[in-house]
């Protein structure tokens, strides 16, 4: 083993040295000290090696979060194998597709995912339960001092992490040790993780966000608290019971926490929390401020990143402050492109805008990144020509960089709407609409249009106590197309993106097709699945987990069974023959 090379198991010796008798992992009533944790990893690694697992073999792991899961990730890396976490939410067909891609030598499951094992009993050489070897590890006294003898897989690949699949089947992103370590160091430096932290694993360890922050906390020698999966009640109980100081979240999780606390009255109770990192989408200003009220001592940051970049590219302190030009949602009075600010890049991250247009001397275009954080390749694909010339990875997002070095997102390249010869970026309009006090969630998408190529619509969820109408100019807490148009003008949204609009409840809206992006971004509306949207004037269509049109029913039948959702979900349709978008 070349000990000068990066390896995620290098943190184990310091954990055993600095926290030998202090808790490192907590799962319910099960607690392991630093010595016990490191011994568990090493003894499990020995079992894997003795069983015949070889350097470069892939080990697929399908399980809910636990201390055992973290130990398996490290033990697999220790013997030079490659971990491929599978999403426990997947269907059997999605699991089959991932297994066919990575061809694992071993499948590891817990009781929750246990039924999957029988389906692949004959096609995968080794099978194991997640709890394998742990009782033995605790009984065995740790060697003093603990000696590490880990190895690396070919190309130093340690992880195959699957993308979310927004462009089709999930791809397997091959990530090496260096990428994971530099991302951990960035989080330690920017978020401020340290050995005094008690970190709650709220994100699943099958996602890059959960893995990256978990490894950062290992390197910081913090204590880890595990719950099987995110549930608002269990998260808040774990925070109280363990004096949790840090956790990560996504907007949907935070909305669930706020909703639960709103029903039970928990404002100001969680004073132990010092650091919250948000990812997978920006928090609205009202939610960010509500978070600060509930976690009064917490530093709140938001991160922008992707699996192919091994997690976070940029970080931004929250909440947004109106007088802070570095972090506010920008006013369009200066005619800059707009969008959503996601902060500055981490020290090791290089960003570039591949220019596609210039707005008032400001280049906008595809966001590229390069550095040690970039993935090695897509597993199973020819890596020739990757990354692009110069080492750049195209994120697939569009944006621009301001004079202070902040990155602004305009949306996905594939989500860009071409209407009347103009480009409309959904996120730019969503950023404006989401600031309206009566809007709880918004998604802007394009639908086919014979004249303008694409027409632009917005799907809006109205907040409780607000009503749709607006006929009475003296009434309060009302929304309408005309009121929203006026609001967008006040926010300096350019005229070509406003136009004239009509809004109606979904059952009465004659939409012939809907952009698939709506399914993947449904969390911004705060709706679960199936998500019901109008497809014609006579029927509604339900979307299944894969985003496919799964069912058709007469409008009246759907109204009877999903009345609550339909009361909240409205759609704005731009009148044909007029440029711009309806807001």
Automatic annotation (TrEMBL):
InterPro entries: AMP-bd_C (IPR025110), AMP-bd_C_sf (IPR045851), AMP-binding_CS (IPR020845), AMP-dep_synth/lig_dom (IPR000873), ANL_N_sf (IPR042099). GO terms for biological process: fatty acid metabolic process; phylloquinone biosynthetic process. Residues 428-465 form the AMP-binding enzyme C-terminal domain. Pfam families: AMP-binding, AMP-binding_C. Residues 16-379 form the AMP-dependent synthetase/ligase domain. One of its GO terms (molecular function) is medium-chain fatty acid-CoA ligase activity. GO terms for cellular component: chloroplast; peroxisome. Transmembrane segments: none annotated. This is AMP-dependent synthetase/ligase domain-containing protein.
């Amino acid at each position: 083993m070349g000990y000068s090379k990066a390896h995620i198991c290098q943190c184990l010796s310091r954990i055993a040295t600095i926290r030998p008798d202090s808790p490192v992992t907590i799962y319910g009533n099960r607690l392991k000290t630093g010595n016990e944790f490191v011994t568990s990893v090493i003894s499990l690694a020995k079992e894997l090696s003795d069983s015949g697992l070889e350097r470069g073999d892939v080990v697929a792991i399908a399980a809910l979060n636990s201390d055992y899961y973290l130990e398996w990730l490290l033990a697999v890396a220790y013997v030079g194998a490659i971990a491929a976490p599978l999403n426990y939410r997947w269907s059997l067909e999605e699991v089959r597709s991932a297994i066919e891609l990575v061809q694992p030598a071993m499948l590891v499951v817990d009781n929750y995912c246990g039924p999957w094992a029988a389906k692949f009993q004959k096609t995968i050489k080794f099978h194991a339960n997640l709890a394998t070897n742990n009782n033995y590890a605790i009984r065995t006294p740790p060697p003093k001092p603990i000696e590490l003898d880990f190895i690396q897989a070919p190309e130093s690949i340690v992880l195959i992490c699957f993308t979310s699949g927004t462009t089709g089947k999930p791809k397997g992103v091959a990530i090496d040790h260096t990428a994971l370590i530099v991302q951990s160091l960035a989080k330690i430096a920017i978020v401020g993780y340290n050995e005094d932290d008690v970190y709650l694993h709220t994100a699943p360890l099958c996602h890059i966000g959960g893995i990256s922050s978990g490894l950062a906390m290992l390197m910081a020698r913090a204590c880890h608290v595990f719950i099987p999966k995110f549930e608002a009640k269990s998260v808040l109980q774990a925070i109280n019971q363990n004096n949790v100081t840090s956790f990560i979240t996504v907007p949907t999780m935070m909305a669930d926490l706020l909703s639960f606390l709103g029903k039970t009255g928990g404002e100001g109770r969680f004073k132990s929390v010092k650091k919250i990192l948000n990812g997978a989408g920006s928090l609205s200003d009202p939610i960010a401020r509500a978070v600060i009220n509930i976690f009064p001592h917490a530093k709140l940051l938001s991160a922008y990143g992707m699996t192919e970049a091994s997690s976070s590219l940029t970080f931004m302190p929250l909440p947004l402050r109106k007088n802070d030009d570095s972090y506010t949602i920008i006013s369009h009075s200066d005619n800059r492109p707009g969008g959503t600010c996601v902060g500055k890049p981490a020290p090791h991250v290089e960003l570039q805008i591949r220019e596609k247009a210039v707005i008032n001397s400001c280049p906008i275009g595809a966001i590229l990144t390069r550095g040690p954080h970039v993935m090695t390749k897509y597993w199973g694909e020819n890596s020739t020509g990757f990354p692009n010339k110069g080492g750049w990875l195209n994120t697939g997002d569009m944006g621009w960089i301001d004079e202070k070095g902040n990155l602004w997102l305009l949306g996905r390249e594939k989500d860009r709407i071409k209407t009347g010869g103009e480009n409309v970026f959904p996120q730019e309009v969503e950023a404006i609409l989401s600031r309206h006090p009566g809007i709880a969630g918004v998604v802007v998408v394009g639908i086919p249009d014979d004249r303008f190529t694409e027409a632009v619509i917005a799907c809006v969820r109205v907040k409780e106590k607000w009503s749709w109408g607006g006929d009475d100019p003296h009434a309060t807490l009302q929304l309408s197309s005309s009121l929203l148009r006026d609001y967008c003008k006040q926010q300096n949204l350019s005229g070509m993106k406003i136009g004239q609009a009509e809004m109606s409840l979904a059952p009465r809206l004659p939409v012939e097709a809907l952009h698939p992006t709506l399914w993947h971004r449904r969390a911004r509306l705060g709706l679960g699945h199936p998500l019901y949207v109008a497809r014609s004037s006579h029927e509604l269509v339900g979307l299944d987990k894969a985003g496919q049109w799964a069912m058709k029913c007469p409008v009246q039948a759907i109204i009877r069974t999903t009345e609550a959702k339909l009361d909240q979900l409205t759609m704005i349709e731009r009148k044909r023959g007029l440029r711009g978008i309806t807001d």
